[in-house]
Every structure is written in C-alpha cells, then in structure tokens.
Specification:
Blueprint lengths: L2 E6 L4 H12 L4 E8 L3 H11 L3 E4 L5 H7 L6 E4 L1 H8 L5 E4 L7 H9 L3 E4 L2 H18 L2 E4 L2 H9 L8 E8 L17 H4 L9 H9 L1 H13 L7 E5 L5 E7 L4 E5 L5 H9 L13 H4 L14 H11 L3 H17 L7 H12 L8 H23 L1
Helix pairs in contact: 4-5, 5-6, 6-10, 6-14, 9-14, 10-13, 13-14, 14-15, 14-16, 15-16
C-alpha cells in the first residue's frame, strides 16, 4: 500500500537519510511535499528524484530560483515560512519533522493538527514547547514517533510494556569529540574540530551540541516529555562506541536495550514502517569485532550544558524554551567564530538566569519567549566578549 509522505527539512542530514530510504522503496511512498531553508539546488534535486508534488523554500527571495530549478517538472513551488506551514497541512500520512531549531516548531504543530503520523527529529521544537505539542497530539489523535536515536531506542524498548513498571530510563551519550579533552584546552577548540563527530555524520548545529553535550541535555528534556516518568529516573551514561542507543530498566531488574550501527537510517526506517519493519541498508553489528562496550559517568564540570538542561527541566515554565533559544544563538556565534567554545554554556547560563517568564500557554507564548531569549543571549554574548 502506498503511503503519502512529507519531509520538512529535506535537504538536511535527516532529510537526506529519509529520502534515501524512500528512493529505495518507490512503490511504497508518494511524496507530497519537501521543504528546505535556502538550498535551492538540493531541494530541486530531491524533488526531481522522488517526483514530489510540491516543494517549498523557506527564504521567500528564492522562489524564482526554485521555479527555474524545477522547470519542466510537475512539482508546484512556494516560498516563505508560511508556505512551509501550509506544506505541513497538506494531509500527508507521514510527516518527517527534520527542520533544525525552534524554526521547525510551527510547521511541526501544523503537521500534528492533521492527526496523522509525525516522525519527530526536530528535538528543539519538543524542548521549547513539549507540553503544547503533546497536548496537540492528544487532541488531534496524531501518532508521534521519535526519530532521535536514543528516544527511538527507548520507544522500541517500551513496546508492549507499561511505563509504571519502568524503574530507570538510561540515555546513552557518545561523549562527542572532546570526551577526553582537558578543561584547559577547551578554550582553543575550533568549529572545524567541533563538527567532526567521532561516530555520527550530522548537521553542523547538532554536531556542536554533541560536542558541548547540550545535545544530551536537550535529549533529557525531550525524554521527559515523551516518556513521562519522574525525571530523577532519567539517567545519562557516556558510551563512546554509540552502539547501545539507550536502555530501559524495569522494576524486576530487567534492562532492555536497542543496539545498532550509528546510522540514522535505522530509527528513520523504524518510523517509516511502524508498526511493521522495513529493510535499511545499514552496516550490521559484528559483535566479535566490537569485542567490548564501554560506559562511563558524564563529566558535568567540563560539560556544564548537562547541568543547565537538568536545571531548566526542574525549573519548568518557559525555562526549556530559554535554554534552547540561547543555545541556538550561542552555537551560531561559535560556528561563525565570534565566541570560544566554553562561552556557549556561559551564554546559556546567563540567559537562563536573566528572566523567568510564566509557563507558555500557546504557540505564540513560546515564540515570544524564544525571541526574548535570543535577544538576551545576544546581549550576554556582548557582555562576555567585552
Ligand atoms: P541539518 O542542518 O543537516 O538540516 C536542517 C534542515 O532544516 C535543512 O533541510 C534546512 O534547509 C532546514 N532549515 C534550517 N533552518 C530552517 C529554517 N529557519 N526554516 C526552515 N527550514 C530550515 O540538520 P540535521 O542534522 O538534519 O538535524 C535536523 C533535526 O534533527 C535537528 O533538530 C537535530 O537535532 C535532529 N536530529 C538530527 C540527527 C542527525 O543525525 N543529523 C540525529 C538526531 C536528531
Ligand atoms: Mg540523539
């Protein structure tokens, strides 16, 4: 049976992995819409490859370029942030939310309102507006499937089980490229070093988040929304091989884990085929070659982002949205060479303590906290640089 599908963020790392699986199974999927921010050539190439009905470029100034790039095809074109939201409303059976950052929140909410299957990679949306998103999922009857490898692993380990029987959820973390880098050397870390992840190939923003371990902090908050158990029972353990993607411990002492090669096509395939399975062209684990699996306690002194995320989770209200927005600003500043690596966490901490808004009650509330936090993060950056 053919399923209709939309990919928001089609030109990114997750978008391309999703398209790879779709292109290998052309009879199973019909692509409704693809979106990208500014990569016209990448978007047009993807739209041609899967014969997409509709393509949207986020940057409104690029509409003519997109039309030119798709000339001679039957793909319709649109541009601008609102057009991405409209693409999310086209009623696809399955929507992959793979835009990076809080920019993906409104499109994800639009897709959720359609009540179909939502595969969520865009963790920043859930961190900023988890309560609202899950309430919307409940209202619309949508099926929310986590794509993030840890949450997809936990989701798989929870199948057929009862959350009341869970004693711990253990998120694994690779530790990133600076797992063993001494504190004194962190000041010198360059963007090129930070985006070079030892195990995973990912977009620039999440690669920096992995390097600061803010990625694991965001994932802790993501887990708290997706798997509502007492946050004290959410643990993080560093596992440098990235083979065990996360674990669930039950009251009887059983620990279920999901393992696999570090390739996002496995969790993406899980969501594409759910509740069935489909083949994914990923490397198979060779346990004899692997020989061992290592685990170690994360270092919250060298990686303060872990502490900041846990504090934001405990504080509740708008704190997670502030944490995320400040981090997006700081990561962009680090990538453009404006600030040193350790300053990322400093900006996030300063922004977090600078204001405490009421709990957001609507999407507009979240977006207004997000933009206030961005302005404050930029101010904090100026203070730190001065
Ligand atoms: P990426 O940078 O490779 O791609 C991001 C996509 O979002 C691109 O298609 C880009 O055009 C689009 N985009 C960026 N800014 C936009 C904006 N303002 N408006 C509309 N579209 C915009 O990122 P990625 O690595 O594919 O990650 C995507 C999301 O998935 C992130 O939230 C990330 O945390 C999450 N995720 C990624 C991985 C991974 O392996 N890459 C793993 C787990 C979770
Ligand atoms: Mg992850």
């Amino acid at each position: 049976m053919t399923r209709t599908l939309t990919i928001l963020g089609a030109t990114g790392s997750i978008g391309q992995s999703t398209l790879d699986l779709v292109a290998r199974n052309p009879a199973q999927f019909e692509v409704i819409a693809l979106s990208a921010h500014s990569d016209v050539a990448g978007l047009a190439k993807a739209a041609r490859a899967v014969n997409a009905r509709h393509a949207v470029i986020g940057d409104a100034a690029l509409l003519a370029d997109l039309r030119a790039a798709l000339y001679g095809t039957s793909t319709s074109c649109a541009a601008g942030a609102q057009a991405i939201i409209e693409a999310a409303q086209m009623g696809a059976d399955y929507t992959m939310c793979a835009i990076v950052g809080c920019a993906g929140l409104a499109p994800a909410m639009a897709a959720i309102a359609g009540g179909r299957t939502i595969a969520l990679a865009n963790k920043e949306a859930l961190v900023s507006a988890g309560d609202l998103m899950l309430a919307a999922v409940k209202t619309s009857g949508a099926t929310l499937l986590p794509v993030d490898s840890e949450h997809n692993a936990i989701f798989q380990c929870l199948q057929g089980q009862n959350l009341e029987s869970v004693s711990r959820i253990i998120l694994t973390a690779s530790g990133g490229p600076f797992r063993t880098t001494p504190f004194a050397e962190m000041e010198q870390i360059t963007p090129a070093q930070a985006v070079k992840h030892p195990n995973w190939s990912m977009g620039a923003k999440i690669s920096v988040d992995s390097a600061t371990m803010m990625n694991k902090g965001l994932e802790l908050i993501e887990a708290a929304h997706l798997f509502p158990i007492n946050p004290d029972r959410l643990e993080i353990i560093v596992h440098p091989q990235s083979v065990v993607h996360s674990m669930v411990e039950y009251v009887d002492g059983s620990v279920l884990a999901q393992l696999g090669a570090p390739d996002m096509r496995t969790p993406i395939a899980h969501t594409l085929a759910f509740p069935e399975r489909m083949p994914a062209p990923v490397q198979r684990l060779d346990f004899a070659a692997l020989a061992r699996l290592d685990f170690e306690v994360p270092d919250e002194v060298r990686f303060p982002a872990l502490r900041l995320a846990r504090e934001a989770l405990q504080a509740g209200g708008g704190s997670s949205a502030i944490l995320n927005a400040a981090n997006e600003v700081a990561v962009a500043d680090f990538l453009s060479g404006r600030i040193a690596f350790p300053v990322i966490a400093q900006i996030v901490e300063r922004t977090l303590i600078s204001f405490s808004p009421a709990s957001p009650a609507s999407l507009e509330d979240v977006l207004s906290i997000d933009s206030e936090a961005r302005a404050r993060a930029r101010e904090s950056g100026e203070v730190v640089l001065a």
